[in-house]
């Protein structure tokens, strides 16, 4: 009987060890499963973080592209405006030169040339005009050295009234005061 009891005790001990081993294996399997689950969760979180980072990077790139395009469009618009303004100013300058030429020619046709005026004589007048083209004043700024020529030019300025002016009223302020040079040789 002792042997039987010993056998039973040994079987119980083996059963207990087997159960403990099973329990240990189950615990190890559970620990490994939890570890794998934790690693899988970390991988998912890392993948999500990388996806969000990539989206943020793409959004920033798109924003930079939009801002660069807007800046380029603004620069192009400013250049176009500057070109248009330069063309406008050039057209005004050309028109101004054209009308100053017309004024000088009209005055020149009315100059009664005194005798013996040197060809290099030059009289400079400051002429103030009204919007109608009438001469408000003609002041000798630089005499030619020949008083008879200076007087002849001054009379011709007044005789040429009304002086030709551009039809655009916006340009009239540029013709309010003119400095005109006259030479007998021209």
UniProtKB/TrEMBL annotation:
It is a single-pass membrane protein. One of its GO terms (cellular component) is membrane. It is found in: Membrane. The keyword RNA-binding does not apply. InterPro entries: TonB/TolA_C. Keywords: Membrane, Transmembrane, Transmembrane helix. Coiled coil: none annotated. Pfam families: TonB_2 (PF13103). The keyword rRNA processing does not apply. Residues 1-63 are annotated as: Disordered. Its main location: membrane. This is TonB C-terminal domain-containing protein. It comes from Pelomicrobium methylotrophicum. The lineage of its organism: Bacteria, Pseudomonadati, Pseudomonadota, Hydrogenophilia, Hydrogenophilia incertae sedis.
